[in-house]
Task: structure prediction
Amino acid sequence: MKRYDLIIVGAGPSGLSAGIEAAKKGLKVVVFDENAKPGGQLFKQIHKFFGSKEHKAKIRGFRIGEELLQEANDAGVEVVLNATVTGMYQDKEIIVRISDEMHHYKGDAIIIATGASENMVTFPGWTLPGVIGAGAAQTMMNLHGVKPGNKILMLGSGNVGLVVSFQLMQCGCDVVALVDAAPKVGGYGVHAAKVARTGVPFYLSHTIVKAEGEDHVTGVTIAEVDEKFQFIPGTEKHFDVDTICLAVGLSPMSQLLKMAGCVMEDNPKKGGQVPICDEYGETSIPGVFVAGDVSGIEEASSAMIEGRIAGVAAAKYLGYMDETELKGKVTELEHALESLRQGMFAPKNRGKAIEETEEGIAISKNLLKHGFVADDEIERFPGVTHKAGIHPVMECTQNIPCNPCQDACPKHCIKIGEKITSLPAVDESVDCIGCGMCVASCSGQAIFLVDETYEEGYATVTLPYEFLPLPEKGEKGTALDRSGKEVCEAEIVDIKTSKAFDKTNLLTMKVPADMVMKARFYKRA
Result:
């Protein structure tokens, strides 16, 4: 039996972060993961993260994964892959299946960072090939370069459903509809808006009646539901699809903790059955800690911070830190974690109907119902301004924890303030130089550069563009509005790419002057 100071189960963002902190304090650390590659969900995540600099905002998930792996290697963390932990016992012993052999390990402390598994919903035909989870679709696209399908219906409007829908389109798939039984969009409005403006229709208060096909999916029927989630007769809608993608939530993978005898609770706000633990992630069994989604479903940014807290707590438990040092480190980490748990989507607000922003501005009802802010709503938000010459227009309308635009602007045209959830505003006393750094840095792709006085009768809109192939300068196509409706002809007058933009291209299109506050996406002819 091999022994370690600290055993970590799960090489995802929380597990690696925990291992790094513990190893830095001198612990002998091993991380076991059942997958062939470490990094967990990070390497599926090609979008840019929210938050601030300390949360690695505006950095794509897979790049954060690369940084974590390098940091873990430099700290001396041993990572064992293709290693499935099949059992954990009260005396901190685990059984691990590696290849075809079972191995026995003992740790002086253990951190469980096993993450979460995808939920499924049942309906006639749900077992047909072509019905897949959103996480599976991400794995196929972003890890293996495999197109999940050609015509896809997405069920679920939380952040996972919205993000994966956009990535499916980047992969070349046709997302025919985004469906959710809930009466409002569940994820960030900026994620919904970037999907809606490509032309994907949202069907809220709808769900799947049946999947169609004999040996694989060939179509799907949805219908509207009432307030009791019962189908409303006569509201059925049919779509020809070859794939149905399900993004209907996650459940903590807490089986090992239950097996070991940790005190558990059923907590719907945390995603299901989770261990009861203290502020350091320590469970009812001394020396057994948890971090990440296994203790409650949140974003990867939160998981990494929770992992670091658990790592230093384990070091303190084993005598590698004193109480004063632990509290100082944890206070710093908890401050970063707490800033991510603010705003409209904070855990404390789950299930609540939010009517106004923190600034007292009425929220966009259309955004919640249809995925985009209506023309008669957009002007009331502080990021939407008008002036001669080029200037930023920020269509960020919800209080979410994110501020990279403020840091990105070299002229300080954009102000958010110290509170990370405040709506971005434009300092109209400062002239924009049109560098585009704010557009490229916005994790929600919600910032545009507008020149309302480009030339007589015409204006320009510079928008973030992450599709290939890129249009060419001089090309003419169609501008789409926030709803994805075609509104006018558009001509590409400039394309900017830069290493600093990190794969976000800046597309500048010329449109009729009266369309400048409507045109928000470019469709190639």
